[in-house]
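User: Some background: our group keeps a shared notebook of sequences we're curious about, and every so often someone picks one and asks for a predicted structure to add to the entry. Today it's my turn. The entry only has the sequence so far, pasted here. Could you supply the structure so I can complete it?
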Amino acid sequence: MNDIDAWVWWLVGAAALGIPLVVTAMPEFGMFAVGAVAAATAAGLGGGVVVQVLTFVIVSVALIAVVRPIATRQRSQRPQLATGVDALKGRQAVVLERVDGSGGRIKLAGEVWSARSLDTGHAYEVGEEVDVVEIEGATAIVM
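Assistant: Of course. Here's the predicted structure to add to the notebook entry:
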């Protein structure tokens, strides 16, 4: 074991930390692996054991302190592109059958949808354009 330089052991440690990164998808293992590569660099440049360990700890902790909050913030943001029924809210539709508080039909995004008026006392006649404010199941709520 004395024949192998310390930097090789750090690289072996970095590779070993890369395995759980891939298996568990926990980015912290990747940050520890980068710390091990930095320690291997310190060992290759002739740094002692204390310098190597301090390099590993400082780089790993710095990456966790900086990268983790950024990743958490990115994960918690809503996607910029609305899909599914969320993409239909706010769009305009054309009334195909009279729409009132009890029901009717509209053409929305090229499809025929059942619809009802947001204001139950108001009705929309055939050919009028309406705005979709909500989707409840398979029914568009319009105004």
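Suggested note for the entry: The first strand starts at residue 92 and ends at 100. The two ends are 77 Å apart (CA to CA).
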